[in-house]
Amino acid sequence: MSEIQRVGTSVRWADLVVHGGVARWVEVAEDMSLDARGQIAQVLNQIDATLASFGGQRTDLLQVMIYVTDLGNAPVLNELWDAWVPAGQPPVRAMVQVGLAGTYKVEMVITAAAADRETHSSRPEGC
Fold it and tell me: What DSSP line would sit under 53-93, residue for residue?
């Protein structure tokens, strides 16, 4: 069995867990004062930063579960998503409307391939 790698651990969670060639993590916007467009763009940028932390890229994405507070923001999310996801290589994706803590408008749970890679550094501050 392969070793479980945990990065950025706290009492309640780890920022990133890598096991069996698969990385898993959650992203919420660092700036909760942003509108939905701003939070979604920020979360996508944070996903890029986390992927880079273990040598990954967008084409390594396997699944993204998207939780939004208002499905009315789906057109904005889809616009930003379509520009961000590599053409012809999208991950499995679901979007669900939920209640989120504080003024978060979006939360994404990400699964990505991380085979034959090591996490060389912790995630960027605030992720």
Answer: HTT--GGGEEEEEEEES-GGGHHHHHHHHHHHSPTT-PPEE
Both ends of the chain: CA-CA distance in Å? 28
71 in a structural domain: yes
pLDDT of 121 strictly over 70: no
Say which CATH number the domain at 77 has: 3.30.1330.40
Indicate whether 108 belongs to any domain: yes
Q: Residues 110, 85: contact at Cβ < 8 Å?
A: no
3-class state of residue 127 by DSSP: coil
The parent domain of residue 107 ranges over 5-113
d(CA 123, CA 24): 12
Q: Hunting for tokens 């780890």 — which residue is that?
A: 14
Q: 50 in a domain, yes or no?
A: yes
- Tell me the per-residue pLDDT of 99-115, one tens digit each, with 9 for 90 and over: 998 899 999 999 999 97
